[in-house]
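Box 3.1 A note on notation
Throughout this textbook, protein chains are presented in two layers. The first layer is the amino acid sequence; the second is a token string describing backbone geometry. Keep the layers aligned when reading.
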Amino acid sequence: MKKITILVPERAVLAAVDDPRHVFAMVNSMYEAEGRNPVFDIRLVGLKKEIRLHGSSFSVHTDAILKDVRETDLIFIPAVTGDPAEALEINREFIPWIDKQYRRGAEVVSLCVGAFMLARTGLLDGRKCSTHWRAADEFRRMFPAVELVTDRIITEDRGIYTSGGATSYWYLLLYLVEKYTDRETAIRASKIFAIDIRRESQSQFIIFKGQKTHADEEIKKAQRFIESNFHERITVDELSQRLALSRRSLERRFKKATSNTIAEYIQRVKIEAAKKSFETSAKNITEVMFDVGYNDTKAFRGIFKKITGMTPFDYRSRYQKNN
């Protein structure tokens, strides 16, 4: 029987604690209904027996205290609320325990912004990681040695798993059900919970706002210019002249400050404007394409799909206001 440890840190998001418990308990119930033995031993583990969450609106009564858990097979790190640095400090006792268990052979899963706690262990250094797209800038600032991939719902690397934002972790839960049981069980679970088993990207949900928490005022000027003039053709040379910076210096500083090249930033601003137009107007694809400064249908379609994971037609069909 596989031992599953679901951590219950202070400030945990209740759903991110109970959903994995619910999924694997449901699989056990399915097996027992068929006369088979349950496959998972599920325990909620915290630093104390009772954890009050969401302003004490809820209490979780743990099955075990962290110091008493000597070994496990699979660890779940749920999302937490509030400032990530404060949450990590409050829950710092989990960090060495997670690291020790992984080195003993346990696998580790982070759900949504639970990736911050996983990254604090150092186990993600040099690896790819998913988290909520809204936390991407702060995550990159705190953990520059980790390769954050904001478009991915699931990453897997040598027994370490991470998931995208909010309820997208359900796709990782189903992935793990299939890994530890079989495809048939995972499909049955997906139908019970009404979750599409195949989705791999959270790109369509990302709202691009640009990274402006940096202190480089000249680069902020460049960002504001791009965002105000996205419908025009903007070149790196034009920006460098406006800011009285060399092209090389501008490109280097822009990448450092925003984690995007200038070309990437311009594309993302244009596509974000196109998405909003599809969501709030009845304009057709060609009209929107021209509005955001593209005149090549193939290029617009390619960039739109690269950034959102969907074609302009599919995005418009799904999100247009009149649908």
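The mean pLDDT is 90. The chain is about 45% helix and 15% strand.
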